Amino acid sequence: LELGVDATVVDYEGREHLPDPATFEALASSFDCYVTTPVRADGFDPLGDDSLVATLPGGATRVLVAGNPAYLTESEAKRAVAPRLGAARDRSPDAWVGTEGIERLALAAGGTQFELLSATTEREVRAMRAAGFDGEVALYAPTVLTDDPDETLDTVGSYVGRRGPVRRALPEDAATDATATGRAREVLLEAATDFTLVGDAETVRERIETLRSVGVDHVVAYPARGLELFT
């Protein structure tokens, strides 16, 4: 495989979208491969059906998450997160653990902390390091190599609009793509600089260097407009 990168993270958007075993093996043999596995989802539930774990390549590192409710059934979304994170970590001690809404549980579970980029990331990582946390921190950040506001909103407006503080600040039923106007457009474009890596290559590079300087070890830059713009 030729993708122009050294590591890949396979995100979870429902079991029907998981790569087949051959594709997983190809990814794991070509790159440092990480796989997002929601501990509440059937197939990855360490306290229930964990049959999909056996389909993951041996060289892949799991990323243990609670799971986005958009990709879970109603019954899966009701399952307790804490005991499942703990059980999954026991079985995969090298796993990354995190994302939005379960930061304290993830810290208690240990392992590389997997977090979403936000306006408070730099302050929070500094505080973790000052408090003595010496583990690794990985940061997920949709990345948009553009200065164009319309391209930014068409690419990450929906993602940004789902973040809690942004969702609460947006007018009701506001558009989140390039058609957004007025207050909604202002909120979304400002939030894009907090929750994503956006701008030209030099701007994004400087932001990543700043994040590394405060203690972030890995930046998972989701190529929101495609990998070809990075090569």
List keywords for this structure.
single chain, 231 residues, alpha/beta, TIM Barrel, 9 helices, 8 strands, globular
Describe the overall structure.
The protein is of the alpha/beta class and 231 residues long. Helices cover 38% and strands 17% of the residues. The chain contains 9 helices and 8 strands. It has helices at residues 21-30, 74-77, 82-91, 103-109, 121-130, 149-162, 164-169, 182-195, 201-213, and strands at residues 7-10, 32-38, 61-65, 96-98, 112-116, 137-144, 197-198, 218-223. Strands 1, 2, 3, 4, 5, 6, 7 and 8 form an 8-stranded parallel β-sheet that branches. Strand 5, helix 5 (121-130) and strand 6 form a beta-alpha-beta unit. Helix 6 (149-162) crosses helix 8. The radius of gyration is 18 Å and the shape is globular. The chain starts with 6 loop residues before the first strand and ends in an 8-residue tail after the last strand. The model has no long low-confidence stretch (mean pLDDT 89).
